[in-house]
Amino acid sequence: MNAPENSAGSGLPEQPDEKRFEHRGAMFDALAREVTERLAQAIDQRGEATLVVSGGSTPQPLFDLLSGADLDWSKVTVTLADERWVDKAHKDSNALMVRETLLRDRAAAARFVSLKTEDPSPEQGEPELEERLQRDLKAPLDFVLLGMGTDGHTASLFPGGDQLARALNAPGGVRCCALRAPGAPQARMTLTAPFLLKSRQIVVLCTGETKARVFSDALAPGPREDLPIRAILRQSRTPVTFYWAP
Ligand SMILES: O=C(O)[C@H](O)[C@@H](O)[C@H](O)[C@H](O)COP(=O)(O)O
């Protein structure tokens, strides 16, 4: 089918809404429309909008579409859900990927808030970043786009992360957390789970059968530390939609 199946009930769902597609192209088109509409609505209602995006490879076709969206991008602030602690010109830098795929064409007018400082380690950079995020990002965030790894991580909330407990349970006001994990090739800076949940809408974007299985596992009861995406999926405070295509 090309039309999404929408399983949302009435009121705030305790399980994510699901939009599954037969083809990735249809999924990216639908998601680009949703992001554009939600940002336009935020600008209409509050004069500005905040978009949090993830790195990784899955969202790149979406960013290509969004970069040409007819929106007043000068009123949009874009930041990342997480960053790898590498130089801003390094091929693994999420900021570099976002600059090359999203922040061009019309979207070049958006303001970008980086999750990286010049410090040699994310631990050293954390205080400056916390201050930057407190100053430059208005909460609630309007739209948060997350990915998921096959190990159940989202943003840089990795299973086995040295600061995972802090990143999952930080008091509401704390926005970012440095983290290292065996499954993460570089040291990371991540937004905390409580801050990601301070948003009007979250989308978890995934492709492929393996991630569909991890998603089902994450909906089943179990510790968030095993599959940290549970912190996003198994809550009833913030609306979440799972977008999926093979
Ligand atoms: O910087 C990162 O690595 C991410 O933001 C991360 O959370 C990503 O979303 C998942 O690892 C999925 O990545 P893929 O889309 O490449 O599978």
UniProtKB/TrEMBL annotation:
Its EC number is 3.1.1.31. It catalyses: 6-phospho-D-glucono-1,5-lactone + H2O = 6-phospho-D-gluconate + H(+). Belongs to the glucosamine/galactosamine-6-phosphate isomerase family. 6-phosphogluconolactonase subfamily. Residues 1-20 are annotated as: Disordered. Pfam families: Glucosamine_iso. It comes from Sulfidibacter corallicola. This is 6-phosphogluconolactonase. One of its GO terms (biological process) is pentose-phosphate shunt. Pathway: Carbohydrate degradation; pentose phosphate pathway; D-ribulose 5-phosphate from D-glucose 6-phosphate (oxidative stage): step 2/3. One of its GO terms (molecular function) is 6-phosphogluconolactonase activity. Residues 25-235 form the Glucosamine/galactosamine-6-phosphate isomerase domain. Keywords: Hydrolase. Hydrolysis of 6-phosphogluconolactone to 6-phosphogluconate. Coiled coil: none annotated. The gene is pgl.
